[in-house]
C-alpha cells in the first residue's frame, strides 16, 4: 500500500473549508439580496437578467474562469485598477479562490431564495406594513424568518458546490500547495502523479462531506405536514 503524509491531507482540507465557508457566506448574502429584489421587481428584461444570474450554474467553469481573468487580470478592467491604486491582485491567492467559488455557488442560493420569496403569502408583508414596519424591518423580521428553510437549503447546496469547485479556481487562483490547492485540485494532482491511495482518501473525504450536506439540504427542503 502506498504511504501518505496526513499533513498532505490536512492542508487542502483546511484550505477547502476556508474557501468554502467564506464563499458560501458571500454567495448567500448577495444571493438573498438579489433574489428578494428580483422576486418583487417587474420590468422589461427581467427574464434575461434572471438568466444572467443563473448563468454561472451552467457555464463551463473554465469559461467562467476566463471571464474572471479578463476582469481581474493585471490588464483587466478591475485588475489593473486594483493593482495601480492598491498594489493588490486577486490572482493566485486565497481571495481569488473565494471569489471563483462564490460566483459559481451564487446561482444555487439565488434560485432557492427567490423561490422561497415568491412562494411567501404577500399578506404577511402587507400586515407588517399595516403595523408600521419599514421595508427593511419587514424584510428582516418577517420575510427572512418565513423563508429560512429555502435560504438555508440553498446555502448548503452552495457549500457542497464550493467543495467541488475546480476549473474557475484553477484559472484564477492557480494550484499552489498550501496556498490555493483545495481538495479538488489536490485530487487532480494526486491522480496525475499516480498516487491512488492518497487520491482515494481525498475522494472519500470530499464525498462524505458533500453527501452529508446534500442530505441535510434535502431534509430542510421538505415541507412539514401538519
Description:
This protein has 226 residues and is mainly alpha-helical. The chain has a single domain (6-221), classed as MetI-like fold (Orthogonal Bundle), CATH 1.10.3720. The chain is built from eleven helices and no strands. It has helices at 6-40, 46-54, 61-72, 77-86, 94-119, 122-130, 135-146, 148-163, 167-173, 183-193, 196-221. The chain is globular. The protein starts with 5 loop residues before the first helix and ends in a 5-residue tail after the last helix. 33% of the residues are buried. GO terms for molecular function: molybdate ion transmembrane transporter activity. Keywords: Cell membrane, Membrane, Molybdenum, Transmembrane, Transmembrane helix, Transport. The chain crosses the membrane at residues 12-36, 48-70, 90-110, 139-160, 198-221.
Amino acid at each position: 500500500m502506498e504511504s501518505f503524509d496526513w499533513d498532505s491531507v490536512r492542508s487542502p482540507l483546511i484550505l477547502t473549508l476556508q474557501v468554502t465557508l467564506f464563499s458560501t457566506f458571500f454567495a448567500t448574502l448577495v444571493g438573498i439580496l438579489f433574489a428578494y429584489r428580483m422576486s418583487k421587481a417587474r420590468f422589461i428584461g427581467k427574464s434575461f437578467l434572471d438568466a444572467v444570474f443563473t448563468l454561472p450554474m451552467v457555464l463551463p467553469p473554465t469559461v467562467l474562469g476566463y471571464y474572471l481573468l479578463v476582469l481581474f487580470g493585471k490588464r483587466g478592467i478591475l485588475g489593473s485598477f486594483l493593482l495601480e491604486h492598491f498594489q493588490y491582485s486577486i490572482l493566485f491567492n486565497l481571495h481569488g479562490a473565494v471569489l471563483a467559488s462564490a460566483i459559481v455557488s451564487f446561482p444555487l442560493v439565488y434560485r432557492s431564495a427567490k423561490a422561497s420569496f415568491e412562494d411567501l403569502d404577500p399578506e404577511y408583508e402587507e400586515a407588517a406594513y399595516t403595523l408600521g414596519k419599514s421595508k427593511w424591518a419587514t424584510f428582516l423580521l418577517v420575510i427572512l424568518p418565513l423563508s429560512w428553510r429555502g435560504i438555508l437549503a440553498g446555502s448548503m447546496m452552495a457549500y457542497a458546490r464550493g467543495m467541488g469547485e475546480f476549473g474557475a479556481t484553477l484559472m484564477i487562483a492557480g494550484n499552489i500547495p498550501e496556498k490555493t490547492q483545495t481538495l479538488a485540485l489536490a485530487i487532480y494532482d494526486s491522480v496525475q502523479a499516480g498516487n491512488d491511495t492518497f487520491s482515494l482518501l481525498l475522494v472519500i473525504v470530499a464525498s462524505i462531506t458533500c453527501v452529508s450536506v446534500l442530505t441535510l439540504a434535502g431534509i430542510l427542503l421538505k415541507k412539514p405536514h401538519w
